[in-house]
Design goal:
heterodimer; A: alpha/beta; Rossmann fold; 14 helices; B: about 350 residues; mainly alpha; ABC transporter involved in vitamin B12 uptake, BtuC; 15 helices; about 0% strand
């Protein structure tokens, strides 16, 4: 099926739009996505920083033609080295078409006009939804594994992920005698996460309650500095960027009022990329937060036995 | 008291002095009230009385941190920025003898913002703390000097406004360009702050940073009172009365640049305030530009604090930018000026 699509693209390029449109309708009626059991795609392009990382973690580097420029950016990706040497794209259709992909992976927040255009031109595009809960991570692995024809590898990854998560939550169960301490995320511009966000899922899995949820925030939003100080969570999670280029948004995190309200024991810096994407790498963030929680609970027990 | 022939002139002076003292007292009182009121506004549930108690060291640690580290520096910066804009507006209008002169309108604020943006986003402000206000002051100096060359001594209203528009749009475009090229992913979004101004989440670090520049600018401008009064009689007469007009002009340029440059580097561009305040207060000082300076500074501070309260009220936690409010206030005032000007012509 795929070679036909290529040929058609060549014809469109050479012979102009009129012929292109007629041939396009032809490809659409042939519907390349319903071709049953296909060979494993060998020219995969990813248009989303989260699918970039998942594909690299799955060990599919050899079959990747291009990932987003964010995949190689240490402030956006947890594994920028893994993307080194790959062609980097900015999600524009014009960059992608000449690369002749046989599978394009996009996030549901990505430029939908690009996705529609690629589909209209007969490319196979699989949209992977954003993960907002921990259960979404195995779901996304499954979608990717199916699309790339790596079912067995995907199942293994999911199994491993679930097992690790169980171990961490079992440890958290051990000291459930005390109520979970509160945490709050504070990022550049006061950006924070509430209910229905992956960051919230990570915080809760580590045994904290999210202070923003009690404030009724759903998804991602802004919180005023005063509100953070008035609520005074047990742990302040500063969502910082690895590369600290100057901006007013980032300068807010250095406000003296924060330093006077939170000590180094009750503040941690988490790099944004750690929990920006739903991948097995979030386990590292959960583990680290769970350790901090255990320490905070211990301190409280010592103060108020 | 005196029965000497000079008595009538003393009487005349005291009748001018009387309302002037009254005006100043009223303005100081109003400023004090707005100052206290402003301390009680914010997303955290802290009332005015709680805030006052916190200032006196009473109340929980959290309340004290919020009041002393967030609200107090915000109000102090509001006073500094507002007074700067009111004062420099009155001084510029007096010296250029032009009712439209104002740091925001004639482009000085925009060039100051450009200077501050250049130092902040290139990292110079991170490496050397004073770079930020110095950048603002340098930008403001370039703005005033440019304006002076383009629409200086003989320039009418039209030349001044045209030059101001040209400088404002040029420096606005350059600010946008610098922010778009800046490496930080947030920089491009911060153009709104630099074009519209805000006092949100500032700290005492900003107060100390701007204070020396702003106060030295004020001193240069406030002492311009007598030459400004003399200038109402014309440049030559002022010169013959013993006032060095060129020296006064240099002081105005330096004073405006220091105060407006540092204020803009901290709070962004806030327009129209310097235009509105002197016009509102002029009738109370018998249209004497020298007597207008201090009332304009106080009036500017009051109006800016009021605007800063208003931006926080409609959407707590997601406040408006200050420039939105001052433009809503200043726009109609500007239109009214045009109507009055046309009526005078016909």
């Amino acid at each position: 099926m795929r070679p036909i699509t290529y040929k058609i693209w060549d014809i469109i390029r050479k012979n102009g739009a009129a012929l292109g449109v007629t041939l396009l309708t032809l490809t659409l009626t042939m519907d390349p996505t319903d071709a049953g059991e296909r060979a494993k795609p060998q020219r995969i392009i990813s248009l989303n920083v989260c699918t970039d990382q998942l594909l690299l973690i799955m060990g599919l580097r050899q079959r990747l033609v291009s990932v987003t420029f964010l995949a190689a950016d240490p402030s956006s990706s947890s594994i920028p080295e893994a993307a080194r040497g790959l062609l980097l794209n900015r999600g524009r259709a014009e960059e992608i078409l000449p690369l002749r992909p046989d599978l394009v992976l996009a996030g549901n927040t990505a430029a939908t006009p690009t996705v529609q255009l690629l589909r209209r031109l007969g490319h196979r595009v699989v949209v992977v939804p954003l993960a907002t809960t921990l259960d979404d991570i195995p779901r996304n692995i499954k979608i990717l594994a199916r699309a790339t024809g790596e079912g067995a590898r995907g199942r293994k990854m999911i199994e491993h992920f679930k097992k690790e998560l169980e171990i961490i939550s079992a440890e958290a169960q051990l000291d459930q005698g005390s109520p979970p301490p509160s945490a709050m995320i504070f990022g550049p511009n006061g950006i924070t996460s509430g209910d229905h966000s992956l960051s919230e899922a990570i915080i809760t899995a580590a045994g904290f309650t999210n202070g923003m949820t009690t404030h009724g925030l759903k998804g991602v939003g802004r919180v005023p500095l005063e509100t953070v100080l008035a609520f005074r969570p047990r742990l302040l999670i500063l969502n910082s960027l690895k590369v600290n280029n100057p901006s007013l948004a980032v300068n807010l995190l250095a406000h003296p009022a924060l330093k006077h309200s939170f000590s180094s024991r009750t503040t941690i810096h988490v790099n944004h990329h750690v929990w920006a994407c739903g991948s097995p790498l979030v386990l590292n963030a959960i583990r680290r937060l769970a350790q901090i929680r255990a320490r905070l609970v211990k301190i409280r027990r010592m103060v108020r036995p | 008291m005196s029965t000497r022939p000079e008595a009538p002139s003393i009487d005349a002076r005291s009748t001018i002095l009387g309302p002037r003292v009254l005006l100043l007292a009223a303005l100081v009182l109003a400023l004090g009230m707005v100052f206290i009121l402003s301390l009680g506004v914010g997303p955290a549930d802290i009332s005015t009385t709680d805030a006052l108690a916190a200032l006196a060291g009473i109340g929980s640690e959290t309340t004290q941190i919020i009041v002393l580290e967030i609200r107090l520096p915000r109000v102090l910066l509001g006073v500094m920025v507002g007074a700067t804009l009111g004062l420099s507006g009155a001084a510029l209008q007096g010296l250029l003898r032009n009712p439209l002169a104002e740091p925001g309108l004639i482009g000085v604020s925009s060039t100051a913002a450009l200077g501050a943006v250049l130092t902040l986003y290139t990292g110079a402000a991170g490496a050397f703390t004073l770079a930020l206000p110095l950048g603002g002051v340098a930008g403001a100096v370039i703005g005033v000097v440019l304006l002076h060359i383009l629409a200086g001594r003989d320039g009418g209203n039209l030349t001044l406004i045209l030059a101001g528009i040209a400088i404002t749009s040029m420096s606005g475009a350059l600010t946008a360009l610098v922010l778009n090229l800046a490496p930080s992913p947030f920089a491009a979004l911060e153009i709104v702050f630099w074009l519209m101004g805000s006092l949100a989440d500032r700290s005492f670090a900003h107060v100390w940073l701007a204070l020396p520049f702003v106060t030295s600018g004020w001193v240069l401008l406030i002492t311009l009172g007598r030459p400004l009064d003399a200038l109402t009689l014309g440049e030559d007469t002022a010169q013959s009365l013993g006032f060095d007009v060129r020296y006064a002009r240099t002081r105005l340029i330096l004073g405006t640049a220091l105060a407006v440059g540092a204020a803009t580097a901290i709070a962004g561009t806030i327009g129209f305030l310097g235009l509105v305040v002197p016009h509102l207060l002029r009738p109370f000082v018998a249209h004497r530009p020298g007597a207008l300076l201090i009332p304009s500074a106080l009036g500017g501070a009051i109006l800016l604090l009021l605007a800063d309260i208003a931006v926080r009220l409609p959407f707590p936690g997601n406040e408006l930018k200050l420039g939105v409010l001052t433009a809503l206030l200043g726009g109609p005032c500007f239109l009214w000026l045009i109507v009055a000007y046309r009526r005078r012509l016909t």
